[in-house]
What does this fold into?
Amino acid sequence: MLQLSIIKEHKEEVIKLLAIKNFSKTEILDTLIQLDDQRKSTQKDLDEQLFEANKMAKEIGILYKSGKAAEANDLKQKTAELKQSSKELSDKLESIQKELNELILEVPNLPHPSVPKGKSSEDNEILSEEGNIPPLHEGAKPHWDLAKEFDIIDFDLGNKVTGAGFPFYKNKGARLQRALINFFLDEAREMGYAEYQTPLFVNEASAYGTGQLPDKEGQMYYIGEDNLYLIPTAEVPLTNIYRDSIVKESDLPIKITAYSNCFRREAGSYGKDVRGLNRLHQFDKVEIVQVQHPDKSYETLEEMRNYVARFASQIRTSF
It folds into this structure.
């Protein structure tokens, strides 16, 4: 979530960077600035009235002790009026803050200036490739046919028991899945990542904390009776460990890893024609997360990318 101070102090730069994400609702920024000004003004008025009310309360006590009951009663009337006025200001402040919180969630985080502007995957820039993509020989079979032939993944059985996007892994397929999970977790621990086993459900605050809410709500499985969401990746509970926390710079980097089942509704038409393992509602994933100083973010990203590329190379050469 963007800080209001960044929007107010660097508005034109924010607009420029948001354009990379094709965000054109720049009027929201002006509304946010106006609301923040109203919030500060209302807070100032409220603080002044509360100060005045406290001051009067002390004076009332002194007047009563001095036998000046009439003057004390007059002040009590004024404090009652201040109390009512303060209540109205407090309600107004709460309303402004709520509107601010809801509106700022509509503003995306800023991309890095190097990110290319685009509207589809065709506009993406390829920064690096690992390994060589082998040419497919004539008569090559797709993975869903191979999975059925070797009886390692059963999509039809998953569809029968649950629905499309929930396959059964069988025999060597189940063993391979388990082996890969253990392999990645073991390697992550060797690289200094602390292993966690996370909940598969998170609350609303956590879903907001990692940006699933408000705009990706339709992509998540929701348990209405408990107001909980099934996680789309272990990154969500891992990251929320540090939500509303202040981390000491001396503790950085914090490196954590977890395996979890992941759940995504994939609502809408996107990917509806994709077959096999390419778009599932439930899948397995080992996540690595680092909490790092912002000045080292891209250095850390490259470190993590090289780390994963090394594993991919190990897996390719083992088959």
Q: What stands out?
A: The chain has a mean pLDDT of 91. The longest strand covers residues 254-263. The first helix runs from residue 4 to 9.
